[in-house]
Design a protein that fits this description.
Largest interface: A-B, 60 and 60 residues
Number of strands of chain A: 16
Order of helices and strands of chain A: EEEHEEHHEEHEHEEEEHEEEEH
Oligomer: homodimer
Helix content of chain A: 25-40%
Shape of chain A: globular
Strand content of chain A: 25-35%
């Protein structure tokens, strides 16, 4: 890995280059994907929305009966320390972080009560930036043939290390050169992207799938808050798949990418094919929130 | 770990005690549960049904677009060598094996085409034996509140490292002291156990869920073959959940446990509460198949 691609991993307090960082072969995160995680980023070296991310991590942990490997405050300091070490080596570099809590080692088998040493890993790497034209001109997304996990099987609210559903869906994007794949729910409503939430604009109003059967993104929450404060009409609800092809504007949100206009869905042009006025307004209010929290 | 509990791990050809075996923190098997596996066992030191297990491994690999890390023949020899090394250290010991193929290292993200070095790990450990009374008197199973993954999201035919669905379901068994939890499909039909297939007996006929929306177990296949050759009436189909409480006999099958009678489902007694005649006949024909392939 070149220096620009360096990844550091803080494994239970020990920070190593990713190439030297390992997990035990008996870790249930490896054997079963039995882990949860958060993805977050810095602006100007400051962690953006760390508290909501930690809140959600705790909810994910509770949903799979996994204990915190360290007190919340200690975990937050570990993230901050990892940012500090990374930025000493890469001054001025903004970064993305993946905070993983894994079940830890235990006998092969499904009895999680035999695993009593959860552990954390914090991956830190230079923020992967989308090309500027993605924000200026919009991206293309496709609707995947893969449906989102049903909440009765594995609730998408749990941000877990079971990610094959999303990986399989993403293949449909990659195959066709699209930036992201959208998944529908088992019953055919719009759910979310593989690593993003999706919003549509119709008649000036913003619509997004309600927070059932999807991961309730931190950026999604911020956009809903900020749009409402700005007086933009916002609605959460069930969105039939057909509506994807009948909207005036569309955008996706994620912690790493922020707000990205969508100007093509499958082979259809969205609106006039340019990022629309509501999307641009949402990008502005997101930037304003970032500036308020992390400085301009 | 005591010697009796020793686990050996063959990682791409290097055999180590499990406590010393690691995987890279950047392995996508750890990051995303992006791996597939097989569980198999020996009888008298001989691998039982290794070829059907390798066939299925190849099918799982294909379904997630993952390449074999070594030619099939080499993988089979690696399994055999692992058995040999384990049995040198534990003479006369029958063992269970877990053969994992994982995506290997790659950048954080869902583009699997950037991961081009899949790897294998073979875990070998003394066969975990169920208490003899489980076979003599039968076990209790419960129907989990957790539903099986829908095939449109993540097909249960893929024997993958995404196992949270099963782990969450197994909690319902553990909480109530049952041996196994059964999962229903999203639409309420009997699917399978967390690590087993399920069979019911009604009016002398054997019924099992058809191989859609479940893992098509190797032992399940063997039981279907052997029961048909023995002239037992066998039917694969959709089994409504209610039928679990209306059967005369029931049993589960798995590669590690073979055929295990089920004499209680939730709080209901199955039949007269003893392993029934059809179940006992199935246990015999399974033992006969083992004897034919691995010696008596």
């Amino acid at each position: 890995l070149s220096s620009a691609e360096e990844i550091l991993v803080n494994h239970n307090g020990t920070i190593l280059p990713a190439g030297e960082a390992t997990v035990p072969a008996m870790d249930h995160g490896f054997l079963y994907g039995d882990s949860v995680y958060e993805t977050l980023r810095t602006f100007h070296g400051r962690l953006f929305l760390i508290e909501p991310h930690l809140d959600r991590l705790l909810r994910s942990l509770e949903q799979i009966s996994l204990a915190l490997p360290a007190p919340r405050e200690e975990l937050r300091r570990a993230v901050e320390r990892t940012v500090g070490v990374f930025r000493e080596r890469h001054p001025g570099c903004d970064l993305s972080l993946r905070l993983v809590v894994t079940r830890g080692i235990g006998p092969i088998g499904l009895d999680i009560t035999l695993c009593d040493q959860p552990r954390y890993l914090i991956y830190a790497f230079a923020l992967p930036r989308l090309p500027a034209e993605y924000y200026a001109q919009g991206i293309r997304v496709v609707v995947s043939r893969v449906r989102r996990n049903h909440p009765s099987a594995l609730d998408p609210r749990i941000k877990s290390g079971n990610f094959l559903n999303n990986i399989l869906a993403y293949q449909d994007a990659r195959r066709t050169g699209a930036h992201e794949a959208l998944l529908l729910s088992a019953d055919g409503y719009v759910a979310e992207g593989t690593t993003s939430n999706v919003f549509l604009v119709r008649g000036g109003g913003i619509q997004t799938p309600s927070a059932f059967g999807i991961l309730d993104g931190i950026t999604r929450q911020v956009i809903l808050e900020e749009a409402r404060s700005a007086g933009l009409p916002v609605e959460e609800g069930r969105i039939p798949a057909e509506r994807l092809l009948e909207c005036d504007e569309a955008f996706i949100t994620s912690s790493v990418r922020g707000v990205v206009p969508v100007t093509r869905i499958n082979d259809s042009v969205v609106g006039d094919g340019e990022p629309g006025p509501v999307t641009q307004r949402v990008m502005q209010i997101y930037d304003a929130r970032v500036a308020r929290e992390c400085g301009a």
